[in-house]
Amino acid sequence: MESSFDKNALFANLNEIFLDLLPESLSWMAYLGTGLTIILIMVNAVLMLTAFGTYMERRVLGRFQTRLGPNRVGPFGLLQPLADLLKLITKEDLRPESADKITFFLAPVLMVTSMLAVVAVVPFGKDSFLADLNIGVLYLVGIPTIATVSMFLGGWGSGNRFALLGAARAVAMLISYEVPMIVSLAGILILAGSMSLVDVVQAQQIPFILLQPIAFFVFLVSASAEMNRSPFDLMEAESELTAGFHTEFSGMRFGLLQLAEFGEVVVTSAILATLFLRGWENPFIPSDWQQVLPPQIWLIGKMLFFMLIFTWIRATLPRMRIDQVMAFAWKVLFPLALINMFVTAALVVAWPDPTYTQLWMMVGVNWAVAIGCLTGYTLSRGRHRQKPTESVRLVQLPSEVS
Amino acid sequence: MPFGLGIAKGMMVTLRNLVRKPVTVQYPEQRVVQNPRFRGEDFVWYEERCTGCASCAKYCPQGIIKIVTSPSGEQTQEGEKYKIETFDIEIARCMFCGLCVEACPYDALHMGTGFERAMPRKADLVITVDELRASAKRPSTWFRPQLQERGYEPASGEEVSWQDAGREATVAPTYDDMLKRWVEKR
Question: Which of A154, A327, A339, B140 is packed most tightly, with the most Cβ within 10 A?
Fold first, then answer.
């Protein structure tokens, strides 16, 4: 407890305020009150950002498709999330006869909980964070897996074949994409020398997006697969599966599932910003620049940036087929992540304590490897590309029969 | 082609769309200006031209025009007109073919350019003779393109008088004219 007070200035200050407020005999409540206050602030911040994220996503998606998006409720449609919420709350909450009561109830709750729990380890300012876990990165790849479980619970508990199929797809896909995601994070951990996100932010003299381009790409792709977003949203492919695992959910249960889905975008953006774009610090390369903006604003700005990128991807790419998705995870992303891990490890062995110049050399080497991978993959694809063969021409023209 | 170039191209396409002006028309506030030759509802009817011959009603493929006339006692000579008591167009079943307008021998009926007659009940979707009398005289130029050549534009709000809307206004024939046509010709 003492060590967390030393590093966590926000926690310590709040704790003192609470100690002043409370009588001597209740001083143990100060710790509790402080923790709960920070949790309250962070959960509300995430939920507000999620609400804003849904609005922004719909507006920006509209602009990507040269339409306007929601602009009726409130100024510029800013109150649209509120209207959505009211609508969802007032809807009837149906539970099918064949549904399993407990799992049907648990699925949305677990999903939202796992989404919110991830934020705990994200630092949002100098010496201000909720928890500085020394296994932070492990935590933030482990906790979202609960969402996978809850997806399967929802799909299984609905008593609906579409939901079950969607859930089965979700589990198959998400487990595959966990692997490249974790391996891509290994490079960052080798560079930072720590699994704590606070240390990862402080270790970024150069943003890791420059030092680890392959890891960034792999993480971005597998994170958008984890979030069930286009182009990997085939567990809710509406043309085949109605709505996937949440076919049977209605009312606020559906609202919670949607909240979790959009909240994961916010949370993943926060993780991306923390791991690759120096978190709460300014993203520019001379790291001794003055903090022009408060750290929270930097973090939120970077989160909005990544949310925009996710929206952009969603606006552009069509849905992939299940075999393409799996092949992409195991044949492209996983080898890329492994290559990245080995190259980073070799670089760290070569320069165990890199100076600023050596860091820039690392950037060069990593980008060279990235471009090499791209070229190599292009060449190999060209060699293995199937040419149209005789078997494709199923219909024989009369002139060919003789 | 390098791997991933296709995705990059697609991303650039959507990015270009992001900075383009949205094509959305905010309907209740903004309206798409219809082509002057649009065949729309709110028929334009010139009572001064109409003789109550009910050609429109006869030619209507749907049979949705109902005309009731009565000799007014004022102009009962041949070539003169009847008093029109009912001119109901049941626009719910109208398919805007324009045959009534083509059939009218006196250019008394014209299509309009409106498109907003949504009603809660189907029974309300009837244009009555009072409505026809009161409606703005902004005919579509579909059957009279000559109007367009004169610089008339339905969307501008300018109205067309009954003299301009069709061919030369028929002058009520005098007794001598009738005599010439029916007696001296034979």
Answer: A154
Only one residue has tokens 């005309």, namely: B67
Q: Could you tell me the pLDDT band of residue A382, with boundaries at 50, 70 and 90?
A: low
Averaged pLDDT score across all residues of chain A: 82
pLDDT of A1 reads: 45
Any idea how long chain B is? 186
- Asked whether the beta carbons of residue B23 and residue A67 sit closer than 8 angstroms, the reply is yes
| Residue closest to A282 by CA, chosen among A272, A273, A271, A291 | A291
Give the whole-number percent of chain A exceeding pLDDT 70: 90
In this prediction, what percent of chain B has a pLDDT beyond 70?
89
Contact A63 B17 (CB under 8 A): yes
Token duo for residue A39: 């949790």
By the 8 A CB rule, do A223 and A272 touch? yes
Mind spelling out the 3-state secondary structure of chain A?
CHHHHHHCHHHHHHHHHHHHHCCHHHCHHHHHHHHHHHHHHHHHHHHHHHHHHHHHHHHHHHHHCCCCCCCCCCHHHCCHHHHHHHHHHHCCCCCCCCCCHHHHHHHHHHHHHHHHHHHHHCCCCCCCCCCCCCCHHHHHHHCHHHHHHHHHHHHHHCCCHHHHHHHHHHHHHHHHHHHHHHHHHHHHHHHHCCCCHHHHHHHCCCCHHHHCHHHHHHHHHHHHHHCCCCCCCHHHCHHHHCCHHHCCCCHHHHHHHHHHHHHHHHHHHHHHHHHHCCCCCCCCCCCCCCCCCCHHHHHHHHHHHHHHHHHHHHHHCCCCCHHHHHHHHHHHHHHHHHHHHHHHHHHHHHCCCCCHHHHHHHHHHHHHHHHHHHHHHHHHHHHHCCCCCHHHCCCCCHHHHC
Instruction: Pick the more confident residue, B84 or A384.
Output: B84
Show me where the domains of chain A are located: 96-379
Rounded to a whole number, what is the distance in Å from the CA of A251 to chain B's nearest CA? 29
Distances in Å between the Cα of A254 and the Cα atoms of A43, A94, A97, A259, B71 are 20, 10, 17, 8, 69
Residues A91, B50: Cα–Cα separation, whole Å: 56
Rounded CA-CA distance B185/B28 in Å is 61
Please list every residue in chain B whose beta carbon sits closer than 8 Å to the beta carbon of residue A317.
Answer: 7, 10
Contacts of A313 in chain B (CB under 8 A): 11
Mean pLDDT across the stretch B10-39? Answer: 86
Selected residue with higher pLDDT from A392 and B142: B142
* Residues on chain B touching A375 (C-beta within 8 angstroms): 2
State the ipTM, two decimals. Answer: 0.71
pTM comes to 0.78
- Out of A191-200, A255-264, B56-65, B87-96, which region has the weakest mean confidence (pLDDT)? A191-200
pLDDT in tens, B42-81: 888 888 888 888 888 999 998 999 998 887 666 555 556 7
**Token pair belonging to A195:** 């699994």
Classify the phi-psi angles of B65: left when phi > 0, otherwise alpha if psi is within -120 to 50, otherwise beta.
beta
SS3 B10: helix
Give contacts of A316 with chain B, Cβ < 8 Å. Answer: 7, 10-11, 13-14
Which is more confident, A293 or B140? Answer: B140
